[in-house]
Amino acid sequence: MLSDAEVGGTPVYAGQMVYVAIAAAHFDEAAYPRPEVFDLGRQSGHLGFGLGPHYCVGAPLARIEVRAALDALLDWFPRIRLARPVEFRYGARGFVQHGTQELPVLLS
Ligand code: HEM
Questions:
Q1: CA 99 – ligand 1 centroid, Å
Q2: Using an 8 Å Cβ cutoff, are 8 and 25 in contact?
Q3: Assuming Cys at both sites, which of 59, 67, 80, 103 could form a disulfide with 49, CB separation 3.0 to 4.6 Å?
């Protein structure tokens, strides 16, 4: 039996289709204060690899790959740094992808 509900103050009517965008969760100010700020010190966790029974089985491999890539990049360009502060915006790269359009860096 379907029934109307309310999620975060928004009415969801029985039978209505809902698209759940994981990326949007990262822009929930209640969970991630100042979400558009690139802050490596955040302690609030993330949903980048999903959650629950379908949590990404490749997450450990992905972490190893990213660490290896960043290690190699830092070996080649030890002075690499952001050219300017970066802002992350929901929808910057479409409905599902989010982040930033570009990431300008200085190599030396
Ligand atoms: C940065 C890299 C990656 C990201 C951001 C990512 C993200 C995700 C997310 C969000 C899900 C959950 C999807 C859902 O709930 O429907 C997922 C599932 C999955 N990922 Fe990844 N993934 C990455 C790398 C990988 C790699 C390297 C592999 C395999 C070698 C992999 C294999 C899978 C598989 C098989 C599932 C489905 C798990 C299931 O349904 O039980 N992923 N991934």
A1: 18
A2: no
A3: 59
